[in-house]
Structures are given as C-alpha cells and as structure tokens.
Design goal:
Two copies of one chain form a homodimer. With 191 residues, the first copy, chain A, is mostly helical. Helices cover 71% and strands 0% of the residues of chain A. Chain A has ten helices and no strands. In chain A, helix 4 crosses helix 9. The termini of chain A are far apart. In chain A, 43% of the residues are buried. At the A-B interface, helix 6, helix 7, helix 8 and helix 9 of A face helix 6, helix 7, helix 8 and helix 9 of B. Chain B binds a DNA duplex (30 and 30 nucleotides) through helix 2.
Chain lengths: 191, 191
DNA sequence: CCTAGAATGTATTCAATGTCAACATTTGAT
DNA sequence: ATCAAATGTTGACATTGAATACATTCTAGG
C-alpha cells in the first residue's frame, strides 16, 4: 500500500521495526511484505528515494547564473542541507547498512546519477580554474569534505557536550552557518 | 569474564548479537550480562576502548620534532588510519548508535580526552600560522575533513562500483594514499 | 584450613522482531 | 459478471535482548 511508501518518509530512528511501521500504518504485521520482499528492500527503497531528493536539491542549487565557484559552494551547501533535512535517508545512502548497491538496480541507478552530477560540477571547477590535481583524488577529497560536515552534524546532533564542550561547540558553530563552513573548507578553491 | 573483553576486539559487523558473541566465546547466552548490564553498555565499553586507542595513535603520530604543519597532517593521517584499522570502534565512536555519551562516564571521559587532544594541536596551528579564523568553526571544519575521509573509506569499502565507477574510483584513489589526500584537503594550511 | 560473600556462570522464561506460508478480500480489466 | 492480480490477514517459527532464580567458583579474613 501506498501508505507504507508515504510512511517511509516518516524519518525516524531507522532501527524502527517493520512491524512497528506496519502497526503505525494501521495494517497488519506482514502486510509490508506484499510490497517489499525483505526489510533490506524497504530500506533500499528509502535509499533510492533519498538519491532522487538529493539529485533534485543539487540540481536546483546549481542552476543559477553564478560563477562556477559559487555554484560549487552551493552544491556543497545543498548536500549538507539535504543530510540535515533527511538524516535517515542520508544514513542509508552513505552508511554501510545497505551494503553493495548492485543488489538493487533502482538504488544503484539513482546513486549513479547523483554521483555523476557531483563529479561533473567538480570537473567543471577543475577545468575553469586550471587546477593541476589528480582528478580522482580531488573528487574523493571534495566528497569527503561535504560528507564529513554532513555526517558529523547528523550524528552528533543531540549529544550533550557537557565535559567536552569544546568539541560540541565547534559542531554547533558549523551547523549554525553551513555556508560559511563549506566556504572555509574549500577556501583555497573559491578565492 | 575477560574472554568477552578480548572478544570485544574481534572487529565484526557490529550488529552481531550478544548471544552469538557469547556462543562464540563458549559460554552461555546470558553470561555477558554479568559484565554488561545491557547491550549498549557492552558497546559503550567498545567505544571507550576505541577512544583510548585513538588517543594513543594520535599521541604517537604528533610526538615528533617536525613542524606544526607536519604534525598536524600526521594527526589527520593517524585519525584516518585508526578508522580503517578499527572500523567497528570508529562507527561506535562517531556514529549515532551510542547516543548521548553522558550516560556512560568512562566513555564520556575517554571521548573528552581525545577531543581535547585534537583541539589542542589545532589551536597550536592557528597560533603558529597566525590564522584569522573563527576558532570554533575552524575546529569543526578540520574535524569534519578528516572524519569525512575516514567515514567514506570505511563505509564505501566493498561497494562494487560497477556503473558509478567514477565515484568509487575516487574513493579508491583516496584510500591508496591517505597522506596525499589529507594533504590535499588541508592544502591551504600546510603551504 | 574454613567459611562467608563476591564474582561469575547457567537454565529458563518472556516479549519483540523478521520471515514465511496458507488463506481471505479487494480491485481492475475484459 | 468474472477472473486474475494486487493487497491484506492470521498464525506459526526461529532468533534476539532482557530478566529472574539458581548454581558454581574464587578469594579474603578469621
């Protein structure tokens, strides 16, 4: 039922049981199995959906008349904001829960499209600025940069900070102005 | 029993059941509960241990006569290498599984010590280079940088790459020379 | 050495979960 | 209206985290 697919969006501690989901959806425990043969398939569906949202978000963010540098930053910001808006999706997409994407064609395709999008704008930047870098390593480091921010913010969220308040304060500062933080991280590329 | 504590180290898909662990240790299913009131306590123990290892690794890495820039890079490399060597620990330490550390004093303290260590060398760098930055944001971004590399490498490990080979290739390149990658990420700080 | 109490281990039980199979109901196209 | 596909339900099963009550081992103080 489509109820499940909409309930899919109910971002919650994914950890949430299939049965609980079903119960909450007002149907019986094994109803979901009509739609998803296994729990992992349900999660794969969530992941696929996540990649679609991310793709659209980035597409919107980079479809401006700004310079490539600014569009590059905008992409980073969009990436991080997506993670904050959809932490469960993000966790599925870039965590190790789902394992190898090859098992799920739709997920795999959606991921490929997102990856291609990011790599494309990154190559555009390299070209425009005439950067002399190992392109593959560059792509990986860029990705790691935004992923690091996104991951830290989503994971450390709601941690008390008492005692190691310095570290938590630094995270809070990052989260309070994401654009500034992305800009700081890619400092040397934007100037 | 201490067997459990040593078996703790057996890095495995943490997801592994307590019972399986007990079985593998050759004791009965509920024996572990003598040592850890709950599963989360066991995991908290693992996390604590992880912070100790990380602290020692970084301590070793930065105890050289090199310049602050080089020691800074060495810290980043040590951080990433720790994550690769102990992915389960890392996941517990910086994922959201354990939730708020305040619930476990030892874990909390170990984490604080690690955080302080990282923040200290980062402050040293800021001072030495006379950087004019928001220190808190700077700390967060630095942390996010190394965390991003570590997280991507540990999570994407063993993903087939067929189809979106560009993205996977970029990760592979990063993993093949971690120091170069960390250097590229903190480019502007090291030159 | 002996014994009391702590530390450790076991057996048994319970509720929740993922999965499956057999059966029932709804729905849409012909 | 009919029939097949889609969807939902009930009941079962094995596994898991957890709790309780009972048994064993170890160790320190007399």
């Amino acid at each position: 039922m489509r109820l499940a697919i909409s309930h899919i969006e109910e971002e919650g501690t994914e950890k949430l049981s299939l049965r609980a989901l079903a119960r909450e959806a007002g149907v019986s425990q094994s109803a979901p199995y009509r739609h998803f043969p296994t729990q992992r398939c349900l999660l794969a569906g969530l992941g696929t959906q996540g990649f679609h949202i991310l793709h659209k978000s980035i597409e919107t963010a980079i479809s401006t008349d700004d310079s490539i540098e600014e569009r590059f930053i905008a992409m980073g910001v969009a990436y991080v904001e997506f993670a904050l808006a959809h932490p469960t999706h993000y966790h599925l997409m870039f965590g190790s829960v789902l394992g190898d994407f090859s098992d799920y064609e739709m997920l795999h395709n959606a991921a490929s499209r997102s990856f291609a999008q990011v790599i494309e704008i990154q190559q555009e930047l390299v070209k425009a600025k005439g950067l002399k870098v190992d392109e593959k390593r560059f792509a990986g480091v860029i990705w790691a940069g935004v992923h690091g921010i996104a991951s830290l913010l989503t994971n450390m969220h709601g941690r008390s900070g008492a005692g190691h308040s310095n570290a938590m304060a630094s995270i809070k500062t990052v989260s309070e102005d994401i654009e500034d933080s992305v800009r700081m991280m890619f400092d040397h590329l934007v100037r």
